[in-house]
Amino acid sequence: MKALKEQLPKSEIHYATKRQFRELMQGCTSIDYVHTFEKRTTEIWSALKKENFDFVIDLHNNLRSRCLSGYLSKKTFRYPKLNIQKWILVALKWDFLPSIHVVDRYFESIQKLGIKNTHQNNSFYIPKEAELNLKDWELKQNDFVAITLGAQFKTKQFPFEKLIQLIDKLPFPIVLLGGKSEVELAEKIIDHYSERMIVNFTNKISILEAGFIVKNAASLVTNDTGIMHIASCFDTPIHLTWGNTVRKFGMYSYRPQSSELTSEYEVKLSCRPCSKIGFEKCPKGHHKCMMNIDESKILEGITKDLSNK
Fold this sequence. Notes:
Rossmann fold, six-stranded parallel β-sheet, single chain, two-stranded parallel sheet, globular, alpha/beta
């Protein structure tokens, strides 16, 4: 959005998204108007039609977005999703995917508009009302480790056993992040420790407040999930664990200006990747992609992060 506005300064940019994601657009001065829908894009079809856009940029390239752009009947630019190449990598383990981030593929889709890839880190705006008082939880800026428990599927999630092994070795205050689905896991971790400095924010704060926590953390331990992408907008060191998904899908931390701030941990297995999205349980029953990650390597990275603060 920023590149579009900077390189087409007279353009009026409208953004369509689910209502639950509207708050993520706060502070994005490059967007002139946000259209939201609850369940179906048909809820906003007529409103978008009245805008009489010059062209449409489709950053999803799925059935729903294609139906929407088809209804608008305007010149549409779609990003290359590379689903066939992803399927080949998952099913046959043959790698024909380019080593390129999805953000760079977004830029490829709008090259014909004359938009050049700026190769800049993304930005994420945190409004004043989302700035929590860290002292309320006895936390200090750059003095605690945030751990994201969530992931869309269990096979992308760092298991309880591995989290305990890591937390056991971390001599720093811990903050747990996640949504409703991670409440049980967070409570299980809290119950495991009686005298540890662990703050449980799962399902208790907004995504913007979670962004504030991540921004002020000394380190973030995360799965392949949304919070990781938010953290990539800041200078927070990221420790990313890969489960069933792989870097070649293009959804890793996007930091072209500061890639050294992201450390990735994965296990080479013949069964990886087993899905481009994930499963509720490991198809082979062992979940070695996560269980075999050496948590001591993560500890080394976090200790280095804290020593540099």
